[in-house]
Amino acid sequence: MVSVTDKAKDKIVELRQKDGLNDNYAIRVAVQGGGCSGLMYDLQFDTDQQPNDHIVEDKGIKIYVDRKSLLYLAGTELDFSDGLNGKGFQFKNPNASRTCGCGESFSV
Questions:
Q1: Short-list 13, 70, 75, CA closest to 45
Q2: What is the pLDDT averaged over residues 39-45?
Q3: Which DSSP symbol is given to 66?
Q4: Number of domains into which the chain is organized
Q5: Strands 3-4, 77-81: parallel, antiparallel or unpaired by DSSP?
């Protein structure tokens, strides 16, 4: 299961509205090879549910995760930070054994 914090939810709603997207747009969270730690996160708006997607809804935000990525993302919390130490979405992933300094890639 992937969850979102209240801050992440508010930012997702704000970005959807800013881009002129309606509530039918879910968040697709995926893991791809790459980055300085070997695996990196991919986050985007999507309306196309795929047959192998695991669908979660948290705080009114629908989240699509493909079956392969779910193995890496189970228990992950999506947060948003706008503080001095960084700005953007952050993944709190209990499966990551190492995370790079920018927080965009990880290894297991």
A1: 13
A2: 91
A3: E
A4: 1
A5: parallel
Please determine, for residue 101, whether its predicted confidence score (pLDDT) is greater than 80: no
Q: Tell me if 104 is assigned to some domain.
A: no
Task: Measure CA of the first residue to CA of the last residue in the chain; give whole Å.
Answer: 17
In a domain, 18, yes or no: yes
| 101 domain residue, yes or no | no
Express as a percent the part of the chain with pLDDT over 90.
63
pLDDT at 100 over 90: no
Could you tell me the pLDDT band of residue 56, with boundaries at 50, 70 and 90?
very high
Give the integer Cα–Cα distance in Å for 72 and 106: 10
Helix (H) or strand (E) holding 58: strand 53-58
Q: What CATH number has the domain bearing residue 30?
A: 2.60.300.12
- Angstrom distance (rounded) from CA 27 to CA 32: 16
What's the domain range around 17? 3-96
